[in-house]
Known about the structure:
By secondary structure, this protein is α/β, with parallel strands linked by helices. The chain has helices at 24-37, 47-50, 66-69, 90-97, 102-106, 109-113, 141-158, 185-193, 201-211, 228-237, 250-263, 280-285, 288-306, 312-315, 360-380, 409-423; strands at residues 14-20, 78-84, 118-119, 161-168, 215-218, 240-242, 267-277, 319-326, 335-343, 349-357, 385-386. The longest helix is centred in the C-terminal third of the chain and has 21 residues, at 360-380. The structure holds nicotinamide-adenine-dinucleotide. Nicotinamide-adenine-dinucleotide binds next to α1, β2, α12 and α15.
Amino acid sequence: MSSPLQNIAPARGKLGVLLVGLGAVATTTIAGVCAIRKGLALPIGSLTQMGTIRLGKRTEGRSPKIKDFVPLAELNDLVFGGWDIFEDDCYAAARTAGVLDREQLEQVRGELEAIRPMPAVFDQRYVKRLDGPNVKKGKNKRDLAEQLIADIRAFKNKYGCDRLVMVWTGSTEVFMKESGVHATVASFEKGLEQSDDAIPSSMIYAYAALREGIAFANAAPNLTADVPAMLEMAARNKSPLSGNDMKTGQTLIKTIIAPGLKARLLGVRGWYSTNILGNRDGEVLDDPESFKTKEESKKSALDYIFQPHLYPDLYKDLCHVVRINYYPPRGDNKEGWDNIDLIGWLGYPMQLKINFLCRDSILAAPIVLDSALFLDLAKRAGMSGIQEWLSFYYKAPMHAPEVYPEHDLFIQLMKLKNTLRHMMGEELITHLGREYYD
Ligand SMILES: NC(=O)c1ccc[n+]([C@@H]2O[C@H](COP(=O)([O-])OP(=O)(O)OC[C@H]3O[C@@H](n4cnc5c(N)ncnc54)[C@H](O)[C@@H]3O)[C@@H](O)[C@H]2O)c1
């Protein structure tokens, strides 16, 4: 099967990965890549590094690793950089985050110490629980955007990067809705000039990336790049986009369990989810305005998976509650509890309890890596705008306005793998399988 996307530019030279916010997730990603490059650890959880893809019929026995099938950047060719409101280098920031063992960090200390954050674009109005010294000053938001663009260009020159990708790994900003200023690039640029309140810091970074034709991913639930002005800019400069909010702990489990219950037509009356979390992310989410952004993102998955409009007897009026409690002793080692009230045959009630003792940033790091590598691939394949095939990684996947987002993890994975097959001119796999029996 031929494909218009077969002319993928090779992954030649270095890929600069710019992370906005060098906190727990970002430093765990960078330290992990450094350790993996040295052969000290395995990239567990990363589809780009460990995943395989079946090609052709089951009888053909072709299942290469994804990284041997599509031309991805090599880990050795990645160069990390970024911004933060704190001046700590990546080693100090990783120590503060407390995710990785001290011993493990020592093994990559030199590489981490060499990464120092560039001064950030930050305004406390959008992240109430944070304040730090490493912040840019500018006469208006347009000036701040220009400063970020100058940083991006300087980074690219300094490290001799062939290409760049940017991922927002910064804190969750307060809840915002799309407004007039986000409608077009023209209205957005006017808003930058006037330092419009509806433009939070994360949008200034996204604008800078997209104006430079760089791929952008949003690992947090903020509105950020999910507005028409950004889509227009992405189309104009051929930047691929993905987000929002990485699907890691409780929502990952939710999108694994819920499609299974739905497949067997088991009803659900209630789903109560609560978490304790003690890292800086937990502290930021302790602010009700930042929590609201997270809550909206976490709550949407079940509605889309269960489709209560099609199955009112099973899922109408489902009571879905999500809580996150900031509990410092737990650090990054989040604990989540889910109670699911089910109904089976003839309406008899059942319950399912899930207790997940996870590590937030350990689950998030492979997603940051995969998003960066796949977005770079998309850019080289000439694919711009929303990359729905990367929904697999997100709690609130970006999607075209006329379609609903796909939340079912298994459909998302099929979509991702079929996109890779399509890119490489391989036959898509429908799982029909009649040919084996004809
Ligand atoms: N860890 C997970 O499993 C997970 C899952 C989904 C989403 N997220 C989201 O990822 C983001 C990062 O999480 P984390 O655990 O690393 O948090 P963190 O608090 O450890 O790190 C965030 C960093 O962003 C910095 N920051 C905030 N605003 C900034 C700005 N305007 N410019 C530059 N830097 C800025 C902060 O100073 C901090 O160092 C959060 O929004 C979180 O909700 C995390």
